[in-house]
From TrEMBL:
Keyword vocabulary terms for this entry: DNA-binding, Transcription, Transcription regulation
Keyword Metal-binding assigned: no
Domain HTH gntR-type residue range list: 7-75
PANTHER family, per the entry: TRANSCRIPTIONAL REGULATOR, GNTR FAMILY (PTHR43537), UXU OPERON TRANSCRIPTIONAL REGULATOR (PTHR43537:SF5)
Protein name per Swiss-Prot or TrEMBL: FadR family transcriptional regulator
Length: 226
């Protein structure tokens, strides 16, 4: 049985805002309704709306000006289906990847130094599940995401963990059908195994090398999409 894909509220809200821009025939520079009006229109909380707006700002659909309002930044990035043009999403993913590479690079170094036996068992269980699902031909995006989240946790740095959490709405785009292809990053699977081995060996230098190989693979996969 196919696993039902989880959809987050902010993802639905960001799509509804895009639909509103199209249906209202808004142009670049036009002002959207206020935050309070948008929360009432879509029946969502302010936190979900803020996450949606952060994402739409990152992909240059809207511009939020404190004290002034929310403005349309670019209307030419929509497909007729309401999805973002591939080139803009590629640019977005590559920009977020730069941030991931920096933050996760430090996290994996710390994880290799600080991992406890209990944490190692948890990470090993994640890798075992990843391998089982991969060999069974199952969808692996959730366990892939869990693996990276576990490394951040093992780093035992609350500030670093908080920074990663603050951009989680952006990083999740790597794990939920990026560029319309849920198998885009399948080639990164072996690097999860080598990253785990380096962490288990308490070798931060090797762990960082393997993470960068992983990120290089992700980058090439993004760039290869036409």
């Amino acid at each position: 049985m196919k696993k039902i894909q989880k959809v987050h509220v902010h993802e639905l809200v960001s799509q509804e805002i895009q639909n509103y821009i199209q249906e209202s025939k808004l142009k670049a520079g036009d002002k959207l309704p206020s935050v309070d009006e948008l929360t009432r229109m879509f029946g969502v909380g302010r936190s979900s709306l803020r996450e949606a707006l952060r994402y739409l700002e990152a992909i240059e659909i809207v511009r939020v000006e404190n004290g002034k309002g929310i403005f349309v930044r670019d209307v030419d990035i929509f497909r007729f289906s309401g999805k973002i043009k591939v080139e803009n999403e590629k640019r977005f993913l590559l920009c977020v990847l730069d941030v991931r590479r920096a933050l996760e690079g430090k996290a994996i170094e710390l994880a290799a130094k600080r991992i406890t036996p209990a944490q190692l068992e948890e990470l090993a269980a994640c890798v075992t599940e990843y391998r089982r699902m991969k060999e069974s031909g199952l969808e692996t995006s959730e366990v892939d995401f869990a693996f990276h989240r576990q490394i951040i946790k093992v780093a035992s740095n609350p500030i670093l963990e908080g920074m990663m959490e603050s951009i989680s709405v952006l990083t999740k785009k790597f794990f939920h059908e990026p560029l319309g292809n849920k198998h885009l990053f399948d080639a990164t699977y072996p690097f999860h195994l080598t990253m785990f081995d380096a962490i288990a060996a308490n070798d931060p230098d090797k762990a960082l090398v393997e993470l960068n190989k992983h990120m290089d693979c992700v980058e090439e996969s993004i760039k290869s999409v036409l």
